[in-house]
Structures are given as structure tokens and as C-alpha cells.
Amino acid sequence: MAADSDKNNKMSRLLNLARKFNCFYLSGLYNGECRPFVVDGLQVGVIRPDVLKELFKYPEVFVIKDNAKSKVVELNPAFRDYESRTESVDRVLRQFRQEDVFVALKGWRDEFYDVKAGHKALLKMDRSATCLFGIRNYGVDINGYVRHPTLGLCIWLQQRSDTKQTWPGKWDNMVGGGLSVGYGIEETAIKEAAEEASIPSDLVKNIVSAGCVSFLFESNRGIFPNTEFVFDLELPVDFEPTNADGEVQAFQLLPAKDCLEKLFAPDFKTTSCPVVIDFLIRHGVITPENEKNFTELVELLHVPLQTLYTHGSTNNGRELYGNIENGHNNKV
């Protein structure tokens, strides 16, 4: 116990924050309590015991295997195509919603995400429900920044509307949105830039792809394996974003160092922190010289989700997690 305490004392605030938005990754993906969710022989998610208990009620849709060789939840293989899988799962989800079974479904918005294995879309699901199955989600984020003549590098942040279904009133990246069915990555970035911040076409054309971040978060709503495609956009000093879709109630321009401090406040959206941290690393605000846990911090911005969703094809994910757990055995 003393060793664990010493280790925690040596963690920086940034590393503690990274462990917070990776809490599920570091606290037991394959610990016997959760089950891989398999569609067409491919793992697409991971299911907690509270969800598993409800799925038992729908054996015609979900085949739950529980024996020495296999402990998985499989979508009934009788559903052989995208449409039939989508219809069968959607019927169950709407029943859950009607019966108010899961708090996550209070955010139902008739906006669909594809459930994929690699590049193959196997079905679609309302975005509010994907966390119940630990489905990998994809989104886009735009870092709007300014090189201010007196304040130096500054970053625009938005405050989410108090009426948002998730993280209401929390501070967030300037622009962000999920990758919905039928939209491409850059297409989504441009659409969200117009809706959330009224960025005109002559400015948004200057967005620069900056890679992605990935992390594995868990809350009372469910499990969130997220990959965010990141863009940077340098904005004129005199440009001020304004909201167009009612989902943002304020914007604020902060010097980069002040923005870093804001991440630790309870009113900042936890799952948006990786995008800001990544930006601050790439722009030299967070460095190996001023962050003692720099290497581990960077690794926790790029969780290898593709190696964790491999049931039926390889055990690499299980082995990888075991190695991680041996080094990080404190729950967040």
C-alpha cells in the first residue's frame, strides 16, 4: 500500500487527468466482468454486467455464451445483413427507452452511428445507445487558435448549452461533433464548424489535419472507446465565433497556459481534455522538460483500441491489457 501511495504522489496533475479519461482502459477491460460483443464473428464492443442482465430478456436477438471456452455476447447470426441487424437491435433499444431502463437512452436523438469492425459497417445504432455496448465512436474536433500580438498563443473554447443532453454547461473544444452515418471526416468538421461556431467557408478551408487521439472512458452511462480526428485552424485576431445551432451558450479566448489550467476545473468536459492536451503538446506548451510524466501522458492520448477489440482473431488485446495492468494497478 505504501508503494501505491508513493506512486500516486509522483503522478503529475496531467497524468492523473489522463488516467481519468482512460479510467476503463486502466481498470479492467478483460477482467471477467465484461463480455466482448460480437457481430458476424467480429468483436465490435464490450458489455458490462448491468447491460448483460437486460440482454438476457431478448434471446432471439442476443446469443449469450457462457461456458469454459467462450463468454461472449453475439448478435444472433441469423441476422445476416446491415438492415436486419439494425432493425433487430433498434427494436430492443426502443423498448429499453420506453421502459426507462438505462439513463444513457435519455439522450436519444435519432442520430445514428455505424457499428464497424475495421472499415466494415455491420449495423447502425442511435448514438445514445452505443455506450451500452462499448461501441467504438468516432468524432471530429477543431482547435481554433490565435497568435495574439500581446497574449501569445491563445485558444478558443466553447461552453456547451445547459440544455445539451450530455455534459450540459461544461466547457469544451471550440468545435466538436460525432461522425454520423453518411458523413465523412472532413465533411463533418466543416459542417460542425458552421453550426457550432459560424466559421465561414473562406476560413474553414484552412483547417489542417493534426492526426487523432484515442481513449477509453467509462461513466454511469456506459463505456466510451473514442477516437477523435483532430484539426487545427488558425483564426484572425479579430474573428469571434458565434453559435448557430443552439448547442453553445458562450465562447472564450484564453492564453494557452490559462487553457491548460482550465482543464483541471470540474466544469470542463472530461472527454474533451485529450484534444486540448494534444494541441498543447504539439505547440510546445507541454514538454518533456516541464511535464515529468510526459511519455506516459502521450501514450494515454493514443490508446491502441484496435488491439483491444480483437476477440475471435487474436489474444493480443488481452495480453496487452495484462501488461498494462501489471504496471498500473490503481483504479482511477
Keywords:
single chain, 332 residues, alpha+beta, four-stranded mixed beta sheet, globular, disordered C terminus
List the helices and strands and how they pair.
Elements: H1 2-10, H2 13-21, E1 35-39, E2 42-47, H3 49-55, E3 62-66, E4 71-75, H4 82-98, E5 112-117, E6 120-126, E7 137-148, E8 152-160, E9 171-173, E10 175-178, H5 185-197, H6 201-204, E11 208-219, E12 222-234, E13 248-255, H7 256-262, H8 273-282, H9 294-299, H10 316-327
Parallel strand pairs: 1-4, 7-12
Antiparallel strand pairs: 1-2, 3-4, 5-6, 7-8, 7-10, 8-9, 8-13, 11-12
Overview of the structural elements:
The chain has a domain at 137-299: Alpha-Beta Complex (Nucleoside Triphosphate Pyrophosphohydrolase). The protein has ten helices and 13 strands. With 332 residues, the protein is α+β, with helices and mostly antiparallel strands. 38% of the residues are buried.
CATH fold annotation of the domain at 137-299 = Nucleoside Triphosphate Pyrophosphohydrolase
The fraction of residues assigned to DSSP E strands is 25-35%
Q: Give the beta-strand count.
A: 13
Question: Superfamily at the CATH H level of the domain at 137-299?
Answer: Nucleoside Triphosphate Pyrophosphohydrolase
Q: What is the helix tally?
A: 10
Query: If you compute it from the alpha carbons, what radius of gyration comes out, rounded to the nearest whole angstrom?
Result: 21 Å
Instruction: Give the overall silhouette.
Output: globular
- Average pLDDT, rounded to a whole number, is 90
Helix content: 25-40%
Largest sheet, strands/sense/barrel = 7 strands, mixed
CATH architecture of the domain at 137-299: Alpha-Beta Complex
Written as H for each helix and E for each strand, in order along the chain, the element string is HHEEHEEHEEEEEEHHEEEHHHH
Poorly predicted regions = 1-9, 314-332
- The class by helix and strand makeup works out as alpha+beta
State the end-to-end CA separation. 15 Å
- The CATH first-level class of the domain at 137-299 comes to Alpha Beta
